[in-house]
Amino acid sequence: MTDPAQSPLLKARVRAPELRGRGWLNTDGLTLSDLRGKIVLLDFWTFCCINCLHVLDELRPLEERFADVLVTIGVHSPKFEHEKDAAALAAAVERYGVDHPVLDDPEMDMWQQYAAKAWPTLTVIDPEGYVVATMAGEGHAEGLARLVEELVRVHEARGTLRRGDAPHSAPKADDATVLRFPGKALALPDGHFLVADSTHQSLVELDADNETLIRRIGTGQRGRKDGTEPEFSEPGGLCLLPPHVAEVAGYDVVVADTVNHLLRGLKLATGEVTTVAGSGRQWRGSVDFDAHDSLAVDLSSPWDVAWYDDRVVIAMAGIHQLWWFNPVQRTAGVYAGTTVEALRDGPLREVWMAQPSGLSVTADGARLWIADSESSAIRWIEDGRMSTAAGQGLFDFGHVDGPADQALLQHPLGLLALPDGSVLVADTYNGAVRKLADGVVTTVAEGLKEPSDLVLTATGDIVVVESGAHRLVRLAPGTLAAAGVDVAGVRHRTERPSTMLAPGEVELDLIFEPAPGQKLDESFGPSTRLEVSASPPELLLEGAGVTQSLRRRLVLSPDVTEGVLQVVAQAATCDIDAEFPACHLTRQDWGVPVRVAGDGATRLPLVLRGLDQAT
C-alpha cells in the first residue's frame, strides 16, 4: 500500500482562507475549525447561472454517497444586483432545493480570497484545512468522487478524518400555497390556465379566475415517469400545438421538463404525459445543424418552448442556443447559436446568446421574440437572422427606460408579443413588467416578485406569472394604456473582478488535464480545439478564431480599456490500456472580463479539466 505521506494530496498545499460572509442559510454558521476532519467542497455559485444550477444537481448524488465525510458549502457570490438581496437568495435556496449550508458572499470577498474566476467554481479543502483542488465549470462529479475517495484513504490512514453527520440542518420547504415558484403558464382554449408549478414538480390547471385549482398533473415527486401519474423535474415552458399537429402527434401541449433535459407531451383530455424528445442525458457534444431522432438526442435545460417556423422552437438555456423539435417527424436539432455565451447578432448559425429563457411569437407568426436573460437583452428572429432590440451585454444591466438601444433590464425570463406589435417583458430581477413599442422601453408595472412569464387571455387581459409570490396575477385594467412614464432608474455593471492584462502581446495558455486513466485521442482528427473571440471585437487586434493548439498569441488593443474575452476549449480523450476504450469529449466556455493596463499580465492561464462522460 502507498505510504499516505507520499500522496501528492499532502504536498504543496495552500491553507484555506476562513469562511466569512454576511450570513448563512441552512445552518447557524460554520468555521473551518468546525469542519476540521471533514472534506469540504466549496461551490461558488450565483442563482441566475444555469451552469451553477447544473452543478447543484450533479452534486446531489455525491453528497448522499459521502454524507459521513463530505460537507458541501455553497458560497453565493452574486452577478446581478437583485441576487445581492438576502431574501432573494433565501427564496432561491428553496426554489432549487439547496439543502447544504450556503454562505452569503454579496461583496464577493470569498470569491476573491479563493481566486475564483468563473461561475461555477468548485474548491476542495482537505480534513486538515488545506486547499487541494480547484475546478471551473460543470461535469466534474466523477472526478470529485475519485478525489474524495483518495482523500478518505489518505486521511483515514493518518487519523485526520472525522466521520459523522454534517454540522447543518436541512431547510423545511413551505408547501402551503397551491403554486410554488411557478415558471411559465399557458392560456387554454377553454379559458383555463395551465401552469408549470416548478418547485412542486408538477403541472397545475387553474380556473379562468387564475386562482381556483382544477387539477394537478404529476405526483409531486422529482422524476421522469410517463403516464397518467407522471413525474417531472422543475418543469418550465409550455407550448400549445396547432390542432392539426396535435391530432397527428397524439398530444396537445409540449412541456419543457428543464432539469430532466427532456420535452414531454401532455394530452389535455386525460392528463397523460409522454416523453417526446431528449435522451435524459445532458448535452456535452459538438455543434451540428443536422436532424436527429428526437428521443436519441441529448438536450440541456430546455427552459421555454414556442410554435414558430412550423415546429417547436426550444430555448435551450443550458447551452445558450435555440433548438427545434418536429412533433410529426419526431426529429430535433439546433436552430440557432454556437454555444458561446455572449451577445452577437447575425445569421442564425453564427449568433451568440446568453441563457435564452423566454419565447413569444407575433400574431402573424413572422417574428420570434427572445428573452436572453444573462445578457439582460430582448432579441428577435425574422427571415433567418437574429437582432437585438434592447440589451448591451453580459455585465451591463439596470432599470432604465427610454430608447431601446439605451434602455436596461435585469435578467428577464419571459415576454409576450401583443397583437398591436408591441412586446411586454417579464423583467424578472427588476420585479417589473416592461413594454417595448416603437423603439422605446417603458415600465408598465413594478413591485412584483420575480415575474417570469406573461399570458394574454382571450378577453384581452394580461396575466403575470409572479414566481416569487407563488401566484398568477392580473394587471389592472388600463395599466397598458397608462404606461409611458419614464423610469430614470440606475445602471449597473457586474462587480466581478477583472483580469488585468497588458496591451499588445498576451499569451493565452490553456492547460488541459486529462481525467485519470485517459489520454488525448487523435483517432478522429485533432484532439484539441480552441476558439477565441472578444466583446467588443475591437479588443482583439490578433488572435481571434479557431485553432487546434491550446496555446494562442493574442494582441490586445491599447485603445480598448475593458471587455470580455470569450474562450471555448475542447479536448477529445480515450481510455488508456482498455480493450474497448471509451471516447470522451471535454468542453468548457469562459467569459473572462479583462481590463487593459500597462502594468497588466502578459500571460492568461486557464485550466481545462478532463471529464469522465463517454461520448
From TrEMBL:
InterPro entries: 6-blade_b-propeller_TolB-like, NHL2_NHL_rpt_dom, Thioredoxin-like_fold, Thioredoxin-like_sf, Thioredoxin_domain. CDD domains: NHL-2_like. Residues 10-153 form the Thioredoxin domain. It comes from the Bacteria. This is NHL domain-containing thioredoxin family protein.
